[in-house]
Amino acid sequence: MRPIDLAREHGLSAQAVRNYDDAGILPPSERSETGYRRYTPLHAQALHAFLALRAGHGHQRAVEIMRATNRGDTESAYRLIDAAHVALVAERDTRTEVAAALGALSTAAPAQLRGRPLTVGELARRLGVHPATLRTWEATGILRPERDRATGYREYGPEAVRDAGIARQLRHGGYRLHQVARFLDALREAGGADALSAFLDSWQDRLTTRSRHLLAGAARLDAYLSLLDRVKP
User: Fold this and answer.
1) Which of 28, 77, 97, 139 is packed most tightly, with the most Cβ within 10 A?
2) Backbone phi, then psi, for 139, in 5-degree steps?
3) pLDDT digits (tens, 9 = 90+) for 191-221
4) Which residues are CB-contacts of 227 (< 8 A; sequence separation ≥ 6)?
5) Which residues fall within 8 angstroms of residue 10, CB to CB, at 6 or more apart?
6) Radius of gyration of the chain, Cα coordinates, nearest whole angstrom
7) DSSP code at position 175
């Protein structure tokens, strides 16, 4: 097969195939007497595997997996694949924590602050916590107070007061500091509790899609490895 023959099946350009060849994504190719590259079903299977891996692992990680496979270092290829699954499990756990934290919140939103921002002491008294607790929450990323330009003192505006109220509720519910911080990060990114529910649904869909892509990539790579075993001298 010529590069264009290999490219057409996947909607690629012949130059893209040559680039993949040069990058070590494909196994070594032979050249015709006139210098043109010649590809075989083994190269087609390698391209299938790479494109499937790329959907789940991203371009660079897929390149690394294929390079390791083509140089016979399957141990490194498997480690790269395993690391992606470990990261996916961690992300699933984070999403589960955030969803559980959302469910643990009371239906009544924390009271919104009107007027001037609160000081550390005022917010601590409102919540019934020690000022040192608020400073700990700030250090762990739970709170993000502003600073008074003249005095340098912390100022807690509406969003910080809201976050502090949520943190108190979650801490009373037994959530750890890092779990509270993750929840509030997601809440800020989503733009509010209602938006967070939709964000969590979308997040779950992305996790499911990535899992399917990882499975498809593994199946394609396994088919390529099986073909490599058959064509070995």
Assistant:
1) 77
2) -65, -30
3) 777 777 887 888 899 899 999 999 999 999 9
4) 41, 42, 45
5) 47, 51
6) 27
7) -
For residues 172 and 144, what is the distance between their CA atoms, to the nearest angstrom?
20
Helix (H) or strand (E) holding 23: none
69: exposed, middle or buried (Cβ count in 10 Å: 0-12, 13-18, 19+): buried
Please give the C-alpha separations between residue 67 and each of 7, 46, 121, in angstroms, as whole numbers: 20, 11, 59
Alpha-carbon span 80 to 166, nearest angstrom? 38
Residue the block writes with tokens 């494109």: 51
How many angstroms separate the CA atoms of 28 and 39, rounded?
Answer: 9
Q: Take residue 213 and report the two structure tokens written for it.
A: 């892509």
Angle at 155 between CA 196 and CA 160, to 5 degrees: 10
Single-letter amino acid, residue 59: H
Q: pLDDT of 43-79, one tens digit each? A: 999 999 999 999 999 999 999 999 999 999 999 999 9
The pTM score is 0.71
User: Which of these, 105, 95, 98, 100, lies nearest to 170 by C-alpha position?
Assistant: 105
CA gap 123, 54 in Å, rounded:
49
Q: What is the distance between the alpha carbons of residues 144 and 121, in angstroms, rounded to a whole number? A: 16
Distance of CA 204 to the CA centre of its chain: 12
